[in-house]
Amino acid sequence: QAKDAGRGVHRLFERDREDHLHRIDLLQREFLDALEQGELVLHYQPKVDMSNGSIWGMEALIRWRRDGELRMPSSFIEAVELRAQLVRQLGRYVLEAAAMQIDHWLAAGYEWYVSVNIGAQHLLDPAFIDDVDDVLRRHPTATPWLQIEVTEQAALRDLVTTRRALTACRERGLAVALDDYGTGHASLTYLQELPANQIKLDQRFVGRLLREPRALAIIAGTLTSARLLNLDVVAEGVESVEQGELLLQLGCQIAQGYLISHPLPAEALAAWAAGWQPPAEWMGDEKSVWF
Ligand code: C2E
Ligand code: MG
Ligand code: MG
Ligand code: MG
């Protein structure tokens, strides 16, 4: 009888697994549809220089408009990244849409960097750089303002291929950021092998900065490495004035997070920029207590 029960549970797990695979499959097909039907849209979240309040640029974040609601990447990006063809199509879409947006903003007098997130499967695809070239050919003026964000985890998957892809980007004049830094155990050695010009401290560390000495140590260490390698550092997920203050004191100048702005539709950014004022606590002398 116990054996029967065991088989029953096993069958149940199998059914769960099949349901799960079926859901992923369905989601992937819906997403392909969404790409073709134009249901995808980019929202933009500002990255600002805390030391003087200037706007460094915007990160482009994908959103899926479906039946009047906005689906967030957490509900579909994993399923998308399981299929190389889909990641590539998404990557081509965001590169094109971001380059077009840069051109619009430049025409309106806004010199903002725009960064796009590129999935590992796309970055490691030999066709990645052809996709970049396609977009740059159509938007040559956008080139120096376009930045590629690659997660540290993706970069560590295949360092040689990643380096080759990122080097090709830099040769074309693009900027490169290492995203979610601190989560993939990258060492200084790895860091100096990648042609990045910016590191983004993962929001998990930023969120713990004021409470956990360990998070503070990781951030301080990263900032020291970054200074040695001449890299910009962006703190993700800045939600309080105090976090920003401490980051500034540690030598981190650029911040991104809900305190500054949530990701917004492109049309909303000019009004946001007109009203943007950094907290008084951030302004003033740029002294850093850390070396
Ligand atoms: P990410 O690149 O690390 O993006 C930062 C995420 O943190 C965004 O979530 C953003 O809305 C959120 N965030 C920003 N400020 C704060 C804050 O102060 N507090 C908190 N709690 N969160 C904050 P989002 O837009 O849901 O994107 C999640 C992830 O999905 C991104 O993480 C990125 O890995 C992926 N993703 C987004 N767009 C794309 C895309 O176009 N292509 C690919 N391949 N991945 C994308
Ligand atoms: Mg990112
Ligand atoms: Mg990130
Ligand atoms: Mg993150």
- Percent strand: 15-25%
What separation lies between the terminal Cα atoms?
A: 68 Å
Query: Uncertain spans, ≥5 residues at pLDDT below 50?
Result: none
**Are any ligands bound, and if so which?**
ligand C2E, magnesium ion
The string of secondary-structure elements, in order, is HEEEHHEHHEHHEHEHHEHEEH
Helical stretch tally? 12
Could you say which overall geometry the principal axes of the C-alpha atoms support? globular
3D architecture notes:
With 291 residues, the chain is of the alpha/beta class. The chain is 50% helix and 19% strand. Strand 8, helix 11 (241-250) and strand 9 form a beta-alpha-beta unit. The protein is globular, with a radius of gyration of 21 Å. The model has no long low-confidence stretch (mean pLDDT 92). Bound molecules: ligand C2E and magnesium ion (3 copies). One magnesium ion (MG) binds next to loops.
Key features of this structure:
291 residues; alpha/beta; 12 helices; 10 strands; 19% strand; binds ligand C2E; Diguanylate cyclase DosC
Q: What's this entry about, in short?
A:
By secondary structure, the chain is α/β, with parallel strands linked by helices.
Task: Map the helices and strands.
Layout (H helix, E strand, L loop, with lengths): L1 H36 L2 E10 L5 E12 L2 E3 L5 H5 L2 H24 L5 E5 L2 H4 L4 H11 L7 E6 H6 L1 H13 L3 E7 L6 H6 L4 E4 L1 H6 L4 H17 L2 E4 L5 H10 L3 E2 L8 E2 L3 H7 L16
Parallel strand pairs: 2-4, 4-5, 5-6, 6-7, 7-8, 8-9
Antiparallel strand pairs: 1-2, 1-9, 1-10, 2-3
